[in-house]
Amino acid sequence: MIIRNQEDVTTAVLAELERATDPRFKEIMTAAVKHLHGFVRDARLTDAEFHQACAFIAKLGQLTTPSHNEVVLISGSLGISALVCLLNNGQNGQTETTANLMGPFWRMASPRVDNGGSIVRSATPGTPIFVNAWVRDVEGRPVAGAHVDVWQTSAEGYYENQDPEQADMNLRGQLTTDARGHIAFRSVKPGPYPIPLTGPVGALLRAQGRHNMRPAHIHFMINKPGYKTQFSQVYSSDDPYLESDVQFGVTQALIGQYVLHTDEPAPASDVQGSWYSLDHHFEIEAGDNRLPQPPITGKAEGDRPVRAVLERR
Q: 0.70 cut: is pTM over it?
């Protein structure tokens, strides 16, 4: 098609998409072209702004490494990850769900942990926490034999793959639900943490006057054949960033009651003084249990990153 004016560009691209043989591919790309072309028109994008946007997108890929995923980070910072999750769970966005963001720090093949065991693999400062979790189906029946992957930051706000002072796979583990759909493990209470600011995500947050903090949470990935794989994050009820999570991930169903105990014995005799407990219930839906590609595959080299925190205007 010979282009006569700007409207013809969209018409020509959509016409070429009609050649696609995959119906879902055609549907997705048609919607993408219409919205992208509409964005260019609505924003009245200049040549300079277009080239700036292209450089921004290229940088996302350039900064994605085996230990850091800038693409997933910006998807969360724009609310896209949360929206995709909520539209694809809870009866396709109709009901509350315990599904949540996968996040950019999930690694496969963390060590197996027996129920009641510890996921602390190296000296890790922080208050001990004892976690109990139950997995049920939508009818409220316990789901036995579900694979549950757990991971979290330290109390200082570092995932092990960011921190050379932590052992490989520290604060990560794989458990299996028992006949009651139950798992239990010991850890340290995680802390809130800033997402990295060295790439395009940092530039985006500065331009918007936002902070870069995530509230403290523990990740759970629940997987069993016959059920949809569910990623969850259980957020600490006492965290100051619950209302302003930089990744828009906090939902009511996933605010966990991290209970501080000061005057009663801990479940482990080696714990003296204060400790936390967390009890939480998850509901998983029938569906496909395929796993996505892990956003990271390895541990970063060099020094632990310097914590840089933006103030929220």
A: yes
